[in-house]
Design goal:
By secondary structure, the chain is mainly α. Helices cover 67% and strands 0% of the residues. The protein has 2 domains: 2-80, no CATH class; 83-134, no CATH class. The longest helix is centred in the first third of the chain and has 33 residues, at 2-34. 12% of the residues are buried.
């Protein structure tokens, strides 16, 4: 039984390791893709292990795409977004467009991060288009 538990633990840890390596590899591919011109412009004389450091040292001059990937504010290209990300982005847009009047009426003094909670707490008074936008 102990051997089986150790085996399961080992498989689990191996899976985590593979996933982390995949994420690093994917990030590396994104950096190569979106920072190619910045690398040529600012770091072409740098050795392989110093390119990221060089790019970060030139952060004020980098292209927006390179800067966002390099500093973990990854704005994925549309083909790289997951359906979940698309859903939340679209839902946010629907809420902003359809609940503007309701937000101003019921949640005008509410902080940005609490607007949906405020709208939901006033759901019985909201317009139909706002109620529909709030549905998941």
């Amino acid at each position: 039984m102990r051997i089986f538990i150790k085996f399961i633990l080992l498989v689990f840890l191996f899976g985590i390791s593979i996933n982390a390596q995949t994420d690093r590899k994917k990030r590396g591919e994104l950096i190569r893709k979106h920072c190619k011109s910045d690398k040529e412009k600012f770091c072409k004389d740098k050795e392989y292990g110093n390119i990221i450091k060089c790019l970060k040292n030139n952060k004020d001059s980098l292209s927006p795409q390179c800067k966002s990937i390099l500093f973990e504010k990854i704005q994925k290209a549309p083909e790289e977004r997951s359906s979940k990300e698309e859903f939340h982005k679209d839902r946010g847009k629907r809420i902003r467009e359809n609940c503007k009047d309701d937000r101003e009426k019921f949640c005008n003094n509410t902080k940005y991060g609490s607007i949906i909670k405020c709208l939901k707490s006033n759901q019985h008074q909201l317009s139909n288009k706002c109620k529909d936008a709030l549905k998941r």
